[in-house]
Write the structure tokens for this entry.
Amino acid sequence: MAGRGEAQFTRLPRFGASLYDWFLGAEPIHARVAEVARFLVSRMDQGRLLDIGMGPGRLLAEIHRLRPGLELFGLDISSAMVQRATENLKGVPADLRAGTIRHTDYESDFFDAATCIGSFYLWDHPEDSLQEIFRILKPGRSAFLFETRRDYDETAYRNALRNNLRKLDLIRRMLGPAALGKALRMSYHTGELAGILARTSFSKSYQIENVILGGLPVWVRITATKIGAGPDPAAQP
């Protein structure tokens, strides 16, 4: 089975991490991060939160600004991104690690919430990764995964993108649509996301909702809650 992109990010150089960090500074993208941060802190005012695929740490920084009492953890497959996040989060107490969500060293029943923004579609083994999220979540707690979807309304997307591009400088205006277009082409249909979740221990306890982030109507929010021990996917036919 061909990989979806994890290997590419594992080899990401420090320059690439810095460029990505710069790109995320654009107003519409910052708005997306801020919207997710506000949603998360509205769901918890204490406890441990894990950002999967944290990149340069912008979401963790915003969460800390809004709710400094939360215990923050970040995981990214790229060592260069972890280094960049460490620099960006200087002075912010956060446990940052390089690694894949498919296999982690976190204790079972450890986190009060987990999240990611736009990295799920790159996971080479999404079912295994969701099983690991299930393991490390506390019973009754949820993962909130924000993901682009391929079954979006193209007219609404084009109109929203045109409005967003007006807020960007020339370089971001040139690079942004190509990067987002590639992500959308690689993204799952909503039905495919449901199929993946149905093959995990979250099979009876998830919701997929269409949401708008950063002004773009191409996102879903997956809420996956840990209920019980869950079935063993390996034992399913």
Summary: The CA atoms of residues 57 and 85 lie 5 Å apart. The first helix runs from residue 6 to 10. The domain at 6-227 is CATH 3.40.50.150 (Rossmann fold). The chain has one domain: 6-227.
